[in-house]
Amino acid sequence: MSNAQVHPSAVVEPGARLGDGVRVGPFCWIGGDVEVGDGTEFGPHCTVHGPTRIGPRNRFLGHAAIGGEPQDKKYAGERVELVIGAGNTVREFVTLNRGTGNGGGCTRIGDGNWLLAYTHIAHDCIVGDHCVFSNNATLAGHVEVGDHVILSGFVGVHQFCRIGAHAFIGMGAFVNGDVPPFVMVAQEGYSRPRGINAEGLKRRGFDADRIAAIRRAYRALYMGQGPQEEARTRLAALAGESADVRELLDFIEAGERPLLR
Asked: pLDDT tens across 100-129, in order?
């Protein structure tokens, strides 16, 4: 039997499953096809529509809107879901939408992310672990974001784009192409790569040799004079000595959209 604490003004629909230690604050609404893991907390005025599965130890602060229908005209009421991992912090007025039937049917959020106020994650997005999305960061549909990615305030990401692990997107940047792992993007006129996220890599324990290899790969990809196929050949040579460069090369080869340049 769950020992969840539900405020008298909150509504938990029949069929919702609340784990041990769940706390539901004033004026919340939890739908019937919702599963909430142990120790998760909802601040005032949060809403959770299903089907949604939420892992343990998440914190949703006031007015978060979780599991709403996808904002897609093709959505016809088919069963689609939102899956959220463990230990995330979701701040005020964040909106997380479910997937679409023709887009995989699921929006997925990993573990340990910070989604700050007014963040929007649209249908069928996949977000990894330990990311930070600053205020008003917005993902359109079908975006994929790797682990340890930082989106600064007012960043917008175009649909179907991918952002690789450890990338840093600067304030106000609009991303309309794939961003490889480790790359830093700045909003200058229009968003463009501006080197690697060296400071972030240092903070996560990357040593000097690893960072130097990533920097050489960035130069081969973005600062060479030849076509991109020549850059890939150079990256393949560097990848033989660096697992990080291999990760970057694998990301590029798996892409269907052009790289942000």
From this structure: 999 999 999 999 999 999 999 999 999 999
